[in-house]
User: Fold this.
Amino acid sequence: MISKRNNIESLVASFALVFVTIPATAFAWQDAGGDEKKDESAEKKKEEPDKWFVVKNAEIHTGTGAVLRDAMLVAKNGKIDDIGHDLEIPPDAKVLDAQGMRVYPGLVAISSSGLLGPTTSDFGDTVNPFNSNMILGLATGITTTGSGNAAVKLKRFSIKDLVVREKIFAVFSWSARNPSGKRSLREKFVSAAAYLREFRDWEDKVKKDKELKEPQKKNVDTTVLAVLKGETTAKFNANDRDDLLGIAHLAQEFGFRPVIEGCVEGWTVADELGRAGAMAIVTARDRRPKDEALVRDGGSSIENAAILHRSGVAVAVVSGTESVDLGGIVGRDIMALPIEADFAIRGGLPEDAALASITTTSARILGVQHRVGSLEVGKDCDLIVVDKDLLHYEAFVQWTVVDGKIVYDKQKELYFAHIRPRPDAPAEPKKLDKGETEPKPDADKPKEGPEEGGKKGDGEKKNGDGEKKGGDEEKKGG
Amino acid sequence: MMLASLLIPLLPLPLGGDTKPGPTPNLLAIRVGKAETIAKGTIEHAVILVENGKIVTIGEDLPIERGIPVLDRPSWVVMPGLVNAYSRIGLDSEGGDDSAAEVKASAELYAQAKDFQEIVKYGVTTLGLYPAGNGVPGQACAVRPLGKTKEEMLLADACYLKIIARASPSAKKLIQDGFKKADEYAEKEKKAREKFDKDKKGKKEDKKEEKKEEPKPAPGAAQEPAAAEDPKPEEKKDDGFVPPEPEPKAKPWVDLRAGRLRGLVSINSAAEFLHYVDAIGKETFSWDVRLVVQRESDVFYVLDKKTYDLDFDGIGDKKCRVVMEPVLSVTPGTMRNRNLAMELAKAGAKIVFIPRNDTLMDAKAWLANVGEIVGANLDRSIALRAVTLEPAELLGVEKRVGSLEKGKDANLIFFSGDPLEPTSKLEAVMLDGRFVHGEVKL
Amino acid sequence: MIRRGKGMHAIGEHARTSRARLVASLFVLALAACSATRHARPEVGDRPDLSPLRPGERGFALLCGKVITADDEGRMFPRGLILVRNGRIAYVGERRDVPAGYAVVDCGEQWAMPGMVDLHSHVHSGGFGDVNDMVIPVNPELRVAPAVVPGNPLIKLACASGITTLFGIPGSGTSHSGFGIVYKTKVHATFDDCVVRNPGGMKVAQAYNPERRAGDFGATRAGLAYILEDINDKAVGANRAGRRDIALENLQKVHRRELPVLIHSAGSDSWAAAARMWHNTYHTDCVLSHGCFDAHLTAPWIAEQGVKVNAGPRTMDYLVTRDGAITGTAAKYIAAGVKSVSVNTDAPVMPQEELFLQGTLSARLGADTYLMLRAVTIEPAKQFNLAHRLGSLEVGKDADIVLRVGDLLDPRGRVERVWIDGEIEYDRARDGQWF
Assistant:
């Protein structure tokens, strides 16, 4: 995507053009703008007034280690414009008073399923930005998720500019169960590395000798070559100690940084993974028994994330299941992402690394850290306002903001509004959405209203007699 | 006019019989307790004069000239015959998944299909028939259900182009590809025009500029429904330019752009609406919505732009019609009813009701179902309009059917009481001035 | 040290009286056998015993950052002291001089809490395969005791999470599932070492799981109810006649309220029906277990009847109630006034070691945090008549102590040490971190 540097370069370029050919100014701007899309957005910005968004009175945890108390964050057109104290609030700014609350960067889930609707590709043509899983993802604090091989934002009600990055990973298999696969992958790396050496050599020499022929790309695996050139990230799904060691050695030999998903026995060879600059995607509560026949360490360990971290492996935490589970079992699905990070802390991971494991580190692994994962000037204004320490089990996300727009307000959705309602908010969200009919007399009754009110009339009395039939269908499914 | 002072009913009409009424006199005065005209509100003690299948006049307590046969039913309520704008009653074929925009439902029309005779008994006097299939299955026609031949039945053809919107790249591409065909045609037409102008250049030069704009309405020049309803007639035809005929596959899309055809976009959910809006991009043409009302519907999110701060216009903002079943849905995840028809109407959309399912049984229960939605706070006049004039306008046959007005087809249905009450009985059905159902004695 | 010996676990042994008798007889035996003077262990209701240890007695003093007793007064002692004498608690309270003879264990800032109790667990055999034969719908003679594998890997993990007592029960695939065992999660123990009560209680199942899907008798709620009422009536009849029916011996005890019964039930319909049968009709000492789906809708009625609730493994309901809210079930029972609420894992449905998390998540979803701490400690102990020994840190109770960093419900805090009957069963520093 567009990095800051590119923009500056293009600006410089455009200025140069302006100076050289004054009559062609208009065109110069257009040239500098690059592709058509940019032109459109530039045009749009000219037409529309700037959109300002401000969070004030907050304890801002930037995700970079800094914590600012009683601070403000100002965003302009979806990007963070300033963070600090006593900043000027632009007129027409949408202001969110986060008195007594903490602000964190929006969480980055390495992977999830269902938050974007039933889709893993062609996001602009398939995402369902109205689906309830997306609301629950935002309620968890997730603002960006890996899906398929892309990083996509949870932009509620919109399908514009969803995708932050595509084609993130080149996925390889490295498994003791498939020795020939390992051998052939290694050969691919050998030949790609050899080609790359020749190519670099040629690049140097061709400057002097323009006649020199470019080396031939014979039998070179383009994916592996892209990994070696740093254009894409190699990802492995591996859990066994032997496989992890093999990957670490391969990475060290050919000089690339592997991402390893699973990594259950990573703690047993953490030093090698650290030396390889590996990045790990782990579930803190993964359970795998040790093979008692072996003397060496093995199996899962609650300390996995902590030990990997201590060895220099960047650790991202993912939940046990990637989707939203509303069947009643709580604490293992995507909504428990912060709880999973808690278990990494239980295993010894420092709190800041645990927060990073679901924000900055996961953004880095997805290669989108230039846009999301932390609160810094110039980055996307994706943030969450939480009533207490995000990693405390009672913490609830009160507001979620994506691109400088509030897309989730706990008190305005039915899911969690009744649990420790925000003092400033009306005791109960409007139970009936606009235009809803059948306002039962007790429908607006606070708290227990819906549970009892909704069913009391037809079932509650009979409950005592055990005759009630309602809800059987759903139950069987659960 | 024709009516002079009072008149007493003289002749017993030879109607009688069972469900198959006999011939109706060419000239007939009808006096009922109440008439729901749709166009001009409710008329108490209404008198309607029907001649040669048309409504000659309608009014309150009009005097009836001596000699005119009178049907006097002071307890009855009359309203225009029902218009079901979205049906496949009497049709059998199956469609594919692809774009078949050029297909016309009228091609599969079979006048002798028994269903047509049946449907009339439930008060349906106009049908909009659409072609089957997914993707872009083709164009609908408007028919009167009774007629010996296809031609006799057909009221209008190419009424709307059915487009099925889905949140998938292939569905969106079908629409975009359609308009690409229109682009190709526009290019072709432009070239033809240039050649034509070049040939004529010798004669007049200054006319040229005006002509340049003619072939295609500038993109962005909104074809709001109003504009589409009376497409500007070819303005400067006098210069003799005959535009080339578009390919059959391209024609519907060219017609859409030119306002000669309107789209009917089928959606199930808010996301499908959004993806449709995204697919058409800046393309402006007239379109209405066919909303399949799901039990748990999230369509309330896209009623208007304001409520949820959307970055696109909602269904209501577009002021388009919404063809939907008269059913309540619930807010997803809850058992809380919501009346989407009412919400859509409040947001600015125009409601077109169709029976809950496309069967004879549901046609029978149609008005009772609409009554339930009225019971859930939908405005009664909107509801009545949603089964008569609004669908007639969707089909482009509003000049002939859909309301009780002077000059319109005498399609009348008579109830023993309020048409929206399930206890009311459909007493008689008149199609083009002839009783086709019910026991009617003068 | 006196361990609970073999002879103590005759069928039906269930209360302090017989044990005290046994202890006394052992004491006499010991006196006779050797010269060492044995001291009777502290009993519940005893005054704190601050006397020095006598020769041959074992004891240690725990100096903690905080002691959470989970007793009925809700006492907590910052910088507290616990004296453990012969496997029981002799003193708990503020710091004071440690009596002579006690080994001092200084735990710094760490917190001491009672070991947790889970009443709905299937990990006693080390897996899920050994929990129910699934053949005969009525199994009043079946006991899980023969299936127990003490110190199996699942029990070890449970111990490392701070669970010290489990009610291991047969599965819910049959209407009358059989009799379970209350045992401690000692990591190296013989069967006799870890048994608290055998049979520990009865298990029955109503609705869903026991439905006879083969189409034989008991496919409907009516059939299921009949199966249970039929066998209950037989036991009640035997009790009335003063007859001892070997096949119904344990069930007869249930109907004499000598053994509690844990009832698998869920959904508002069967949940209320179960309470009606076991609580209102047969007047047994019953605990309703699960209470998932929309069973919480009956909470006010359940509260009125005074029925004990053991909620879980589902801690919330969304799909069944369908009012758009994610309802924390434990919170609903408490709010409705149910006095006795515990939570369970139904392990391995939820991993056994995550019992505390069931409390954590219930607290997250609206239940009071302290009540949730009680819901994994003293409440289950009370519900199963084990509170004279377990569930809180009080004088005379078993020294089942968990030492950890911070709030018991916070997943971030790890368990440092676990004592059961005054013996260290898990020590993170010594054993490595198991969980």
Summary: The two ends of chain A are 43 Å apart (CA to CA). The first strand of chain A starts at residue 52 and ends at 61.
